[in-house]
């Protein structure tokens, strides 16, 4: 559902815009129709949630910019106005488009499509950004506690060649080729590691960039890693889908 606010003081313009939007976005819901600056200030004082705002500029009691001068409104704005003199000023207020009246289906459709593309882009990157912020806000580990037999040992992260899972148990191998048990699942392990140093190669492996000697083609579309530590017998395969991200990670791009 798309929650929309219309700021407009002309009844016919409101009806036309609602009709066009309902045709283009059948699941649209109009959370508010605002007809004046005063009404807009009162409405946004309640910090409402909406996805998009369609906004005329000249209202009966002033310019709609006055509304947004009173509040920080982060919602994308599409201005609909009969005047082109405010086009530069409009982009000071989260504007993603500026439509001159009378608006038509084609122009509104392009503006809505622009909104959807921007939304898709930011949604795709939101989780990556959130993961990065969580990582930056978390104290960095330099060692982890692992098990070898009955002993619990602190191993430096910089000495770990790879993590892997086998029969639902997570193991790690250090540069001396010593194998330890790590008492967490692979996803939790991944979240604790520096993403610049460690990479989730596939469901089974996390690898350390400092011990990757090279990689080569495998089954034409996949990659096989070779480690600088001798006699690492694990065959770590990067899928075709993961290969582009792996290459970017490896080169720091």
Automatic annotation (TrEMBL):
- Molecular-function GO term, any one: DNA binding
Q: Which residues carry this modification: 4-aspartylphosphate?
A: 56
> Where would you find the membrane-spanning parts of this chain?
none
Q: Does the keyword rRNA-binding apply?
A: no
Please list which residues make up the signal peptide: none
InterPro entries xrefs: CheY-like_superfamily, LytR-like, LytTR_DNA-bd_dom, Sig_transdc_resp-reg_receiver
List the SMART domains: LytTR (SM00850), REC (SM00448)
Stretches assigned to the HTH LytTR-type domain = 144-225
Q: Where is the Response regulatory domain?
A: 3-116
Source organism, top-level taxon: Bacteria
Is Phosphoprotein included in the keywords of this UniProt record? yes
Keywords of the record, alphabetical order, are: Phosphoprotein
Concerning PANTHER family, the annotation shows: STAGE 0 SPORULATION PROTEIN A HOMOLOG, TRANSCRIPTIONAL REGULATOR-RELATED
What is the name attached to this protein's record? Response regulator transcription factor
Which taxonomic lineage is given here?
Bacteria, Pseudomonadati, Bacteroidota, Chitinophagia, Chitinophagales
């Amino acid at each position: 559902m798309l929650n929309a606010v219309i700021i407009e003081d002309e009844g016919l313009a409101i009806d036309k815009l609602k009709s066009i939007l309902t045709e283009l976005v059948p699941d649209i819901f109009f959370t508010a129709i605002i007809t004046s600056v005063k009404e807009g200030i009162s409405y946004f004082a309640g910090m409402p949630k909406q996805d998009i705002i369609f906004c005329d500029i000249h209202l009966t009691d002033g310019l709609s910019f006055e509304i947004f001068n009173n509040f920080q409104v982060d919602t994308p704005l599409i201005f609909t106005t009969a005047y082109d003199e405010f086009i530069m000023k409009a982009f000071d207020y989260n504007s993603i488009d500026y439509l001159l009246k009378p608006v038509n289906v084609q122009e509104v459709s392009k503006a809505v499509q622009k909104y959807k593309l921007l939304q898709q882009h930011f949604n795709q990157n939101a989780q990556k950004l959130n993961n990065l912020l969580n990582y930056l806000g978390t104290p960095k580990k330099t060692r982890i506690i692992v098990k070898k037999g009955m002993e619990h040992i602190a191993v430096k992260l910089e000495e770990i060649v790879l993590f892997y899972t086998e029969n639902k148990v997570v193991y790690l191998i250090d540069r001396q080729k010593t194998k330890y048990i790590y008492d967490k699942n692979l996803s939790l392990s991944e979240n604790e590691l520096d993403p610049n140093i460690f990479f989730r190669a596939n469901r089974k492996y996390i690898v350390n960039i400092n011990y990757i000697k090279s990689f080569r083609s495998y089954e034409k579309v996949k990659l096989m890693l070779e480690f600088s530590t001798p006699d690492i017998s694990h065959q770590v395969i990067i899928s075709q889908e993961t290969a582009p991200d792996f290459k970017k990670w490896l080169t720091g791009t």
